Amino acid sequence: MDPLRRHIVLAGLVVPAVAALPGLSLAEDQRPSPEDVISTWYRLIFELIRHTPTYSPPVASRAFAYLGITTYEALAQGKEPMVSLAGQLPGLTAPPAPDPNAACDEAVLLHAVYVEATKNYFGNTGPSGQRAMQAMATKLGAKVSAGLPQATIDNSLAQGKVVADHILAWSQGDGGAVIENMGFPLTFTPNKEPGHWKPTSTIAQQQAPLLPGWGKNRPFAMPSADACPLPPPTAFSEDKDSQFYAEAMEVYEAVRNLTPEQTAIARFWSDDPMLSTTPPGHWAQIALALLEDENAPAGRRAEVMARLGITVADAFIACWQSKYEYDTIRPVSYIKKNIDKTWEPLLITPPFPEYPSGHSTQSGATATVLTAIWGDNFAFTDGSHTDDNLPERSFKSFWEAANEAGISRLYGGIHFRPAIEQGLEQGRCVGAFAVALKMGAQA
Questions:
Q1: Which of 55, 426, 418 is nearest to 225 (CA)?
Q2: Tell me, what's the pLDDT at 51?
Q3: What domains can you pick out in the chain, each with its CATH number?
Q4: Is 270 helix (H, G, I), strand (E, B) or coil?
Q5: Number of other CB atoms surrounding residue 411 within 10 Å
Q6: Shortest CA distance to 153 belongs to which of 119, 114, 95, 111?
Q7: Residue partners of 27: CB distance under 8 A and separation at least 6
Q8: Helix axes 57-76 and 150-171, enclosed angle (nearest 10)
Q9: What is the pLDDT of residues 230-261, one digit of tens each?
Q10: For residue 19, is pLDDT > 80?
């Protein structure tokens, strides 16, 4: 069976069966609520990310930001205590207000938002994804419209499209709207000096690094891409008595002596593109599951997913700005040259510079946002990878999970320790900007 069909349980409807999704238990003739619409579409989006080739972690983070903002703005129009993000995010103006004399239904409005948004942000997904989006639009659309006056349906669909188109138009000027060659520049001249990034893959496309200009994209809540700067990484050296060599030895020895638990941690947080929902999707799955557990109303779901999407998108902009500022060599390149030419990391090294760790920056940012929402020492269980046959993991707090996500990259042989520690701190800074946004629904 096609992997996309298997993962999203297409069954006879060729869309996620509502009753089969965790947290949703609608009878066949029960009309979906706005909350159901949000959860159902996000679960399809998780699978679209798995099966859209251009959706590397930075690109996925951008999609989550715009999807969250579109959802939130669709619900926030004139509805206190929700406060529009217009004027808070750079260049965003308020979407056209709905006609006060035209009745709208929230479930239909949200459905229209997702139909338009997924069509726009996942337009380059494969045939299975295209069929799934179309089938979802048709089948779920019929369910949410059941029993409503045609005028209400028409007004709701029209307003949803207006909001989605408004956010889409704004998104086109951020620098990340067009991804060519899966994000790898067609021409690139690497720095040949010692200590700088060098290709870690034999794949021809990956002789240039991924998305070197991503750090120049327009940020969301951050005032600028360099709003959360980092100290330089450890000074490069091949001297066996140097700090850099010691950090490389730590990675080398860690991978050679991994415990079963450390191996499990590395694989749980790996979140490779095309094999998972990517690191931003992993945290989005955690947040959505928590919202479903508490049966959160639609406004709260929209706010949480918007804040989360904004902070992961900013995290990748900040991280990529730093990565290409410092252009640091990867452990596998250094270790093979200076310590052991036969050494291999547990995980595949991503094709871009080392410092800081993207996992760490985005995990620090999300931990900051989710802690602001649910509080310190909020215990939860993460079952994001149960469909991939990886056991769920439990955490005493979001920061415990973020720290584990960070150190997983050392266990995988992907990062030196400073990239992890400084990445988490950069994420803490990034997350604070998203926390400061005035929204109002989640309280």
A1: 426
A2: 87
A3: 3-171 (1.10.606.20), 185-435 (1.10.606.20)
A4: coil
A5: 25
A6: 111
A7: 19
A8: 140
A9: 999 999 999 999 999 999 999 999 999 999 99
A10: no
